[in-house]
Design goal:
mainly alpha, N-utilizing Substance Protein B Homolog, Chain A, 0% strand, 303 residues, 2 domains
């Protein structure tokens, strides 16, 4: 939807160029994911460096010489640091943001260390993987993912990440929750696509919508008598075209799935009235398509 909208705004008709932009944007989501996960590893390393340097001070205190090492010994953070899947992905995608922006890692670490959550964790004598994991999950959701400076950095680094940050944070938190002690594969870098069919769908939906926009528009224009076509927002028209494209050209996608997906997108990106408008138009279209036998869905339960 965003790529098609950008095409409209720029007046571009270069399908291959815009398709490359679409897939580059999708691929960059994995870079965002790796940058955020690696921040957890770097925070632990910075604290370990700090404790090491403090112990070597000329006038080191008892606290400097015998610090509380619970945080840098956190089993989840150590597991992430030693994780082959993560190390390979970081090297393959050439992710080295924190070596160039360690000041932000120091800010995140300082924010963590002054938090009641961190102080409570250090004071707690509980020693278990599950205890460590709960702290990291809480730390990530409350202090890392919610950090405005980190958000600003990611937004400035790549503007297209604005909409991807919540998704990536949710996936990372889900993965942290699923981690098990001593199981190397309990954390693995997520593949960008579920399978080849997943990637093909993105390409096909983009192409089939763009190449058939006029034809798809004809399906809804006469069915919106109470709406002035000139006043329907461009985002709404793109969503309608994409939904109709799924109705008519993707036989394996259930009608209800299509409607629900575009209602969710409308709530996120369009005007408050958009979801009502789109729901009404799509609902009427489905009834008409069923009467005229234009819906050719295959498989059980697809209507």
């Amino acid at each position: 939807m965003q790529t098609i909208y950008a095409m409209h705004q720029s007046g571009s008709d270069q399908l291959e160029k815009e398709e490359k932009f679409l897939f580059a944007s999708i691929e960059s989501i994995q870079d965002l994911y790796l940058i955020v996960v690696s921040a957890l590893v770097e925070i632990r390393k910075k604290e370990e460096d700090f404790l090491e340097k403090a112990s070597k001070k000329h006038l080191a205190t008892e606290k400097d010489l015998k610090p509380n090492r619970k945080f840098i010994s956190n089993r989840v953070l150590l597991a992430l640091e030693k994780n082959n899947s993560l190390s390979i992905a970081l090297e393959k995608r050439k992710i080295n943001n924190w070596s160039q922006n360690d000041d932000l890692i120091l800010i995140l670490l300082e924010n963590v260390k002054k938090s009641p959550l961190y102080l409570s964790y250090l004071a707690d004598k509980t020693d278990s993987f599950e205890h460590d994991k709960k702290f990291i999950m809480d730390m990530f959701s409350e202090l890392i993912a919610a950090n405005e400076k980190l958000y600003d950095y990611l937004e400035d680094y790549k503007l297209t990440w604005i909409d991807d940050i919540p998704l990536v944070n949710t996936m990372i938190l889900k993965q942290l929750k699923q981690m098990d002690e001593g199981v190397e594969k309990s954390f693995a870098v997520l593949p960008l696509y579920k399978d080849a069919e997943d990637k093909d769908f993105a390409r096909d939906l983009f192409r089939k919508t763009v190449l058939n926009e006029n034809e798809l528009a004809k399906e809804y224009i006469d069915r919106t008598p109470n709406w002035d076509p000139e006043r329907i927002s461009e985002v709404d028209t793109i969503m309608l075209k994409m939904a109709i494209c799924e109705f008519l050209r993707f036989p394996s996608i259930p009608v209800k799935v299509t409607i629900n997906e575009y209602l969710e997108i409308a709530k996120e990106y369009a005007t408050p009235k958009s979801s009502i408008f789109i729901n009404g138009v799509l609902d009427n279209l489905v009834k008409d398509f069923q009467k005229t036998d234009k819906l050719k869905k295959t498989g059980r339960g697809l209507m």
